[in-house]
Amino acid sequence: MKDIRAIIKKMDFFADLDDKALSEISSRFTIENYLAGETIFEEFAAGDSFYIIISGEVEINKHIGKTVESTQAQLDILKAHSYFGEMALVDDFPRSATVRAHTNATLLKMTKNVFIDLCMHYPMLLFNLMKTISHRLRSTNQKFVEIVDRMIKESRMAAIGTAASKIVHDIKTPITVMILTAELISTMYEETGEFTKKIISQAKELDAMIREILDFAKGEQSSLTLKEVNIDKFFDDLMNIMDAIAVSREINLTYINKVKQTVVFDESRIKRCLSNLIKNALEAIDEGESVHVLAVIENNYLKISVQDTGDGIPEDLIDSLFEPFITKGKKGGTGLGLAISKKIIEDHKGKLTVSNTPNSGACFTMYIPLIKDS
Fold first, then answer.
1. 17-31, 206-220, 297-311: segment of lowest average pLDDT
2. Would you give the distance in Å from CA 108 to the centre of its chain?
3. Which of these, 368, 366, 361, 240, lies nearest to 291 by C-alpha position?
């Protein structure tokens, strides 16, 4: 009895009650034991009691649909000294969630009739219950919204993964034909070598990009091809792709490389990541403005920043910018570019950040740890 009183004394549900009241309330509980996986009560079932966890953990699950056949999502896992099922004390509606023992659990149980009888003697219990229900409703609503949002995103990613798998298979033949044809033309007409080389390079890039989307949709870490990279040459290759876009939009695009040593990373993936950041910057600003790309070594990292002179990123968007399907402010796109770019950097054990620079615009910065070529 003393142990039960010590448990309930710590809970806000029984706040402001004296020792006599706590002793009386403690005596009205019963003790129940559940094995891991055992159901305590089901959603949609009638409720007539609430519970306090003495030891172990329980999981709260809710059906996404309105029937027992619909998919369940886990709302929470409650640990010792938490309570649940309190809604049954004040209404006659069915249970709003299913509760199962997550581990072996020992619970205190109080029926509705007992609780009502106690409230007649200790009205503060009813007031505390109202506060508890209000807090729980707010918390559950927020968690449920987050769960549904996550499930929608996971479903969309699964659909993209399926589509990407089919595309990878279907597109392999035409890409192979393109490459073989370009190589044949290069052999027959040597003067076309510069152009066929670009065709072959871009065809291989297309194949790699689709595979990257597939890896992202599956949540898999990409297999990196690490090698030593000369940043001057890396920027030269990048300029061949990005300068044409900048010129067409009348935007000043500059590259500054302060890295004098060779560095190690997957060149094609980092080039795609940086190309995406630069392209986004070029699309986000007006004609006559500028984008500056800077590479330096800082604190044992290769740091490459892309700074524009635009209006910056709206504050309500900046925290979710790297999440999949965020396309706000863009007329086109899938909403996967920045999410995949972030994954590329994280696969390198680095990080990709974004911030607004006062009086300048948005700045994306990638940090890639300096490593030796393996």
1. 206-220
2. 37
3. 361
Buried b / exposed e along 231-259 (16+ C-beta atoms within 10 A): beebbeebbeebeeebeebebebebebeb
Q: What 3-state class would DSSP assign to 61?
A: strand
Angle, alpha carbons 349-353-356 (nearest 5°): 170
Angle at 211 between CA 208 and CA 216, to 5 degrees: 125
Cα angle: 192, vertex 193, 199; to 5 degrees: 90
CA–CA separation, 192 and 371 (whole Å): 38
Compute the radius of gyration of the chain from its Cα atoms.
Answer: 30
pLDDT tens-digit profile of 109-162?
A: 999 889 888 888 888 887 777 777 666 666 665 665 566 566 666 666 566 666
SS3 35: coil
Q: CATH: 3.40.50.2300, 3.50.50.60, 3.10.180.10, 3.30.565.10. Which one for 227-369? A: 3.30.565.10
**How many DSSP H helices and E strands does the chain contain?**
9, 15
The pTM of this model reads 0.49
Cα 160 from Cα 81, distance rounded (Å): 43
Give the amino acid at 252. Answer: N
Q: Which of 87, 120, 129, 101 is nearest to 35 (CA)?
A: 101
Measured CA to CA, the distance from residue 224 to residue 74 in angstroms comes to 35
Residues 6+ apart with CB under 8 A from 221: 215, 347
Is residue 262 within 8 Å of 228, Cβ to Cβ? yes
CA gap 289, 312 in Å, rounded: 13
For residue 3, give every residue at least 6 positions away whose Cβ sits within 8 Å of its Cβ, in sequence order, or none. Answer: none
Domain 2-122 has CATH 2.60.120.10: yes
CA distance 223 to 328: 31
Q: Which residues of 74-109 are buried (b: 16+ CB within 10 A; e: fewer)?
A: ebbebeeeebbbbbbbeeeeebbbbbbbbeebebbe
The Cα 105–Cα 142 span in angstroms is: 27
* 51: enclosing H helix or E strand: strand 49-55
